[in-house]
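Open question from group meeting: does this chain pack into something compact, or does most of it stay loose? Before anyone orders reagents, we agreed to write out a predicted structure and look at it together. Recording both the input and the output here so the notebook holds the full record.
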Amino acid sequence: MNMNRLNRLLNLIYRDLRIQFTISTVAWTLLSPIAFIFFTGMMMGALVQSVSINGQSVTYLAFLIPGIIAEQVLSGGLMAGWTVVADRREGDLEQILSMPFTRLDYIAAMLISMILFTLMYVSVVVVLASAISAINISLMAVLMMLVYLVAGTLIFGSIMLMIVTISRSYTAINIAGAFIASILIFASSVYYPINANTPVVLSYIAYSNPLTYIVNGIRQAFFGGLDPTSLFVMGLLVLLSFAIMTVVTLFYERSKTLL
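Structure tokens returned:
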């Protein structure tokens, strides 16, 4: 990467982060995990005494925290698509592309800024988790979580970017984003374990959902550490993320409907 491209990329990343880091956004980022952990974790924890993970019996709150982290990874990815919608509606996208910025610069900067924003949210959850639960957050767990965070943001961000490119209807894009988020969250192991008691059809759906592997991978990082299976899954998610991102980037480069 030459210096001109690097400077363009850094300028766009700074622009995206400046838009995202508003008082309301930061306040929501800080308060949302607190409220989620308190209400969902405590109330469901009163009903579900323990959950088994890798042969360990943990509280429902400890089970839920990796799910909250994975859910934010999904939200961070989907946010990339909604950013394009906002830029297109306000005319910022047309203005940016009329400057010495390429479509690849725009896409890369947006995905990187979403990763950084998601990292901030996840950091808050991790600090809370270490303070109120029995989760042992080691350096290896943090490194594994970073891999899932980056891969997940790229996967879900690329999917949303494809939808934004195909459709020009703001209403349709918002509905599609909300629908995809709901399906991916509830058809995964974010809130409940997938085990022998899960209906077979739902198990197939859950295990075809990349969010399930991100959630389970983060739980493995917290409660089991790195093993050959988790290393294999991380490798597949990384390959999938770059494959999807490459396809979407090529599609964007050739698309005439971006604006």
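Observations to bring back to the group:
The first strand starts at residue 51 and ends at 53.
The two ends are 26 Å apart (CA to CA).
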